[in-house]
Amino acid sequence: MVAAKTVELTYKKLGGSWPWQVSIQSLGSHFCGGSLINNNWILSAAHCFQSTPAGLSVFLGKQSLQTSELNSLTITVAQIINHPSYVSSTHDNDIALLQLSSSVTFSDYIQPVCLAAAGSTLGSGTLVWVTGWGDISSDGKCFATSVELPIVSNTACTSAYGSGSITSNMMCAGLSQGGKDSCQGDSGGPLVIKQSTGWTQAGIVSFGYGCALPKIPGVYARVSEYQNWINSRIGMK
What keywords are assigned to this protein (predicted)? Predict the structure, then answer.
């Protein structure tokens, strides 16, 4: 999740806690995260799929990437749909959909996440959670981790990244003092918030300068900007 000796981490078992979190793997190796949004589709980041990875599979319901688990499931990918306006040089529209080759049967360990309503926003300072199997240290641990972060306004985020770098399709989160962040391997994973109706995904891990650096928040694709596109691709009305 982050790479620094001073980083504060919170470990949670995904089964029942973050049951929408998935590991996307190529030939058995994790390279990006994603989220289950219904029984046929995964939401992730377009930059994970600039080329089609070989042997692509999605692992659901897992806590550890190093052990077999009775409650986990592995499904191959039927198709990848990157957003047609994704720009790799600017990271704008960094969102992708993966169609699973077979439908998922939900369980206590495998559940879809709700998506942020079109046009909805989160105010600066709102606390959110980011989950994934990304880097947490140099020792290569492969357990799922989670971190709680405050939303950073796009104006403040632009101050860190430069004029024009943060678009309305993006959102930012991080601590001004650093120490907590998403990191390499978390890409495509969910940023979620607990609301009265349950957990809602508001962002997708996209990019950042380093990991957990002071005054450098992480940048996420803003899910609420893509409801129409998502629904048009997965056949929802």
Answer: Disulfide bond, Hydrolase, Protease, Serine protease, Signal
